[in-house]
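Forwarding the complex inputs:
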Amino acid sequence: MSRTSLRVNGQSHTIDVEPDCPLLYVLRDNLALNNPRFGCGLGQCGACTVLLDNRTVRSCTLPVSAAAGKEIVTLEGLATEGNPHPVQKAFIQEQAFQCGYCLNGWVLTAKALLDKNPHPSDEEMRNAFESLICRCGSHVRIFAAVRHAADEMKRSA
Amino acid sequence: MATKHVLSRREFVKDTGGLLIGFSLADGAVLPQVLAAAAETAATPSPNRLDAWLRIDRDGNVHVFTGKAEIGMGVETGFTQIVAEELDVPFSRVIFVMGDTSSTADQGGVGGSTSIALGSKPLRNVSATARTLLLRLAAKNLGASPDELQVREGVVSVKADPSRKISYAELAASGDLDDALKVSGEGFALNVEGLGKPKDPSSYTVVGQPIPRVDLGPKILGKWQYVTDVRVPGMLHGRVVRPAGVGAKLMGVDDSGAKKISGYVQTVTKGNFVGVVAENEWAAIRAAKALRVNWSAPERAFPEQKDLYQHMRTVAPKATKETMKKGDAAGALASATKRVQASYEVPFQSHATMGPGCAVADIHTDGLSTIWSGGQKPHALQKGFAELLRVPLDRVRVIWVEDAGSYGRPGFEDTAADAVLLSQAVGKPVRVQWSRADMTAWGTKGPAAVYDLAAAIDEHGEITAVDFTSRAFSGGEIMFVPATADNYLGAQLTGIPNTSGVDEFAQWGVQAPAYVFANVHAVSHVLSGFYAAGSPLRSTHLRDPEGPQTSFAVESFMDELAAATGADPIEFRLRHLDNARAKAVLTAAAERAGWERRPSPKPDKASGDIVTGRGVGLSTRGGTYVGTIAEVEVNRRTGAALVMRFVCAHDCGLIINPEALRGTIAANLIQSMSRGMKEEVTFDRSNVTSVDWTTYPIARAPEIPAQVDIVLLNHPELPPSGAGEPSSRATAAAIANAIFDATGVRVRQTPLTPARVKAALSVARA
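Prediction (whole assembly, two chains):
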């Protein structure tokens, strides 16, 4: 066990944890943040995605020690002051999911993609999402939501 | 809307004097995990009283209690519309409690795409009855007769003088809203009737509207609670360690390494069931890895995978059923001018839910036990766990909380049983979330199936006879209603034999359309599972049981017959159907797709590697009709096929919510495309070797068609039928038919991988 300081959704936390414990379990079990979700524990599906210094990482394989001192954002922290992020608004507008267990990865990956590339081509979008799984098959609406979000963000930029 | 729901749920929790147990959650993530303080029993409410189904609180919120569950297709939203419609209350005032065995009647849970078709009947009736009773109370209160009154948004007023009014909330506070109901049927068919008559569908204003789903906003905002997020005070975390292979016996466990892990609590063994419990999930995972379990050599119970279909064709069936004998098919085949024969093969598939199964169990064999599970039939689980724990039924409460998808009987039931066994052993509440391999490899499977079809063609090119034979493992080898202890993998590993399974047949005219021919002979065989209990290759219900399999065979074969007689595939089907709605979805899909009338294959004009084609499939299921057209691009060099577009015409009678329905259809098309093109459980002689997303690949973003066009055929004059499964059924066949159209080559085995397409192309070339 060692004391680790984490900055999550703008708040600082100090916790006692095994340094090799994947970030996912710290977020879920120590900080009760539910949206990083366990999907495979192998980095193959993206359900556990969080933003680390605004880049998507798989928290199920990232040791907590590697996240110390960095800015961690989970789905819980995406909205500001009660306002949904434009990406969230677009996903709600498009009613993009079925069960929604995977959506954490899709919403955060979409946010990171649009931050980097506000007008992704269809191919760029698909490539950005290739490492994610949606078992229910909601992809068609997910893609529509990302296009919708890109348009909205362009309009308000 | 979301906030209102949550607040009212909290209100409700307060009202009932219940105890809300320990969640530390983001605001808004609270579901009604109410444990009545010091409850002695957890009896399921009898459905024969109105207040077992519906209560109105002093704020005017309508609380509705249903034994159904939301598994990701929007049924809670549809139910909400139905209740709001019948009661004339705002949509946002209706709050559902779903799948809690202590507060909802046993409606059989979710299954067979029946939640709207059957499950909404009692909800419609109790809402209409509550409205009638409220009107009577209002009439007394306002000094008018009920037919002089009108209701708008939960407020009753006198038509002639709307200033004379009283709200449902006031009426509910002042009067007795309960009444006796007449009960009929049970399980899915459970219905109740009271004083009220439901409205005429032609007057609907809420049903039929594209209202956003009640769950999706909170989910996308990160304020939803899945079963993975249930936390109870003192909760420990468990993991299971499965046998080294099918039939391996536990010889011993060395847990000295596990004991060194900080947070380790206890190793649990019972027969061949092995698990470990720790204070936190990471410690449980590490402890499970650190256990040195000594297993006897596994049985070599499975054939080599390459011999699976050979095995299925040669083994003596466990059960056989002649499902149709019309005319003399054998005679017609013997005297045919031309015969067409073809065989089709479909592998085992995994539910492989996005999150591996998760459950929390708090077991007290001398008191009340509570299990939180995403299993879609909670009342069945209550019975099964009572049997497993050897306690009376009313000492077990199962609270359904949404898990990841479900798609039938995915293994969530087995996860919950693992949690039950571990909590019983350690005397504390235990949360179990399976590993990915526990889910994909050791979860239940959709059965493999093989089909042999033959048809006779006379000298005029007419089909005179069809002969159909299926040989499939049973979709009920593991009973799909998990109401007995022997149903669960963990229980089987403790030594309980699986005796509750049933034979479920893959049938002509049931899991595929009932095409009309002069002579038809259809026989279905069920094959024995490979190993009696505790097998990773045990089959049960996977979305649309035996549907995609049987449809792949029959819908491919209809295409082969159309090609053999030089007919357009849609025209051919129309000629052999006698159902107007089935014909209508084919015609509607063809129209939207811009279907070119001609036989397949497409005349080969392409010179490069890439060729394109289109194919059709028809699904008729439980009163729902679906015509699916796939447009594909095939690379003749690599064999890679890509669906570029789906067109799907869908008729499920009265539509409750067209947007939620479109979402479900679109997702069904993609999931069933994945099953048809990518998914095959692999195994060796003793183990399933599909253990993760690399060894059990499914469709990913680059493979998703650019365009999906859905045509809804609404029939307000007909009752609603199911939509959860019918559009999953014919997709694989439509794609295979499109590949044939593009290449002239028929692939008769799924998944339709590049290797299979390429192999078929090289055979054709040779």
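Chain B has 20 helices and 30 strands.
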